[in-house]
Amino acid sequence: MRPPLAAGVLLVLVLVVAAAVVTPAPAPIAPGGDIVKTLCAKTEYPVECEMTVLPKPGQKLDAAGVLRLAMDVVRAKLADARRAADALIADPKTARLALSPLHACVDLYDYSSDSLDQADKAMAVGDKDTTVVRLNSVFTYVRTCDYGFEDLHVTPLLSKQDDELAKLAAICIDIAVAGLR
Description:
The protein is mostly helical. The chain contains seven helices and no strands.
């Protein structure tokens, strides 16, 4: 015997209400003067985020604009890390065993730059998922740089740069997840 229609409707309503209570929608982030602070507070590194994501005076930003500023910081740090790697490669004092991992790091920094470009393109068309995936690849690439040294039991020569880059990439990921729709 089937339950009466009213009981079925009541059951559906209870399930819908329960789902709404269990999975609240995130509060929208309104553009404005505190958007950098608001989004940085949602990252794993809020202090570092606020210290590095610096809008120009009077610049009006939305979440995508904040993310682009954070990505620009990563781009600049990637360029610095690449210069450091190139200098170590050119230095005759650098151990020959370290040259292969250094060249690999240069490639990984290039891949990271390409991933930032792809994340920017995905963001421009409103593709949050691809944006986050590409930002995750930046994080993975910079973390992978040190593995080449470790595999050869050589001191990672770029670990300081890679740690900073990983932190900045994590900030980008967190901003994208929190702010993009």
